[in-house]
């Protein structure tokens, strides 16, 4: 059974913490809404639609208004990372090692299609991945497992043969609900203690701590029924 690694995108393949926080802060200020890093931390893994409804705290936001706010925020984000692309340290090397070892590789992200396309283009294009899921492909954000189950399906993999690499608690919880192994990456704005309540199979501080052998061991344990 061919193993598959499903990568979250923001905070895993691209170090986008500061670009996302600044773009949310700017669009919130334009709307007269206070936005802090506490709200930003709550947003990890959720779709933009969920973030706007939860952070704006207004019941009169119709879909057209939410879409306009979302589009503005994401345009600001793409403008920021387009100027200087913050690739995550070790991401390119890990992807190449996994391809050479015969792994299937997928991306399961809550980000909009334009953001995912921009990032994947910097990694050689979507054709370099066996399955790609963006925020418009799913109805429910993490911790719901929909995004990872769909990514596995598109990659031609079964859930127990998948390892999810995530940088947020909702993503680790989504991997567990999907029946997949998980690796928590302590990226910008995170700490190891953030992940302990959701029990990832492995916690790392850098993608350079991962290799095909380690990830294959996680898959083997999952297939053997060792949670």
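^ structure tokens above, recovered residues below v
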């Amino acid at each position: 059974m061919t193993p598959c690694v499903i990568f979250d995108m923001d905070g895993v393949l691209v170090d986008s913490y500061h670009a996302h926080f600044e773009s949310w802060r700017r669009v919130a200020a334009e709307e007269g809404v206070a936005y802090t890093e506490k709200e930003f931390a709550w947003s990890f893994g959720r779709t933009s639609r969920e973030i706007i409804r939860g952070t704006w705290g207004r019941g009169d936001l119709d879909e057209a208004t939410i879409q306009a706010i979302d589009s503005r925020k994401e345009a600001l984000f793409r403008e920021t990372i387009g100027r200087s692309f913050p690739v995550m340290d070790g991401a390119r090397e890990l992807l190449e090692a996994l391809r050479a070892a015969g792994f299937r590789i997928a991306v399961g992200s809550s980000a909009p299609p334009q953001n995912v396309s921009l990032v994947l283009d910097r990694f050689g294009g979507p054709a370099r991945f066996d399955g790609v899921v963006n925020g418009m492909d799913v109805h429910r954000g993490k911790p719901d497992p929909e995004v990872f189950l769909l990514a596995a399906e598109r990659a031609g993999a079964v859930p127990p043969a998948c390892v999810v690499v995530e940088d947020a608690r909702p993503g680790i919880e989504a991997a567990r609900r999907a029946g997949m192994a998980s690796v928590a990456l302590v990226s910008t704005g995170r700490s190891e203690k953030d992940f302990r309540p959701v029990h990832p199979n492995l916690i790392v501080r850098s993608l350079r701590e991962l290799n095909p052998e380690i990830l294959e061991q996680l898959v083997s344990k999952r297939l053997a029924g060792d949670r």
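The CA atoms of residues 21 and 40 lie 7 Å apart.
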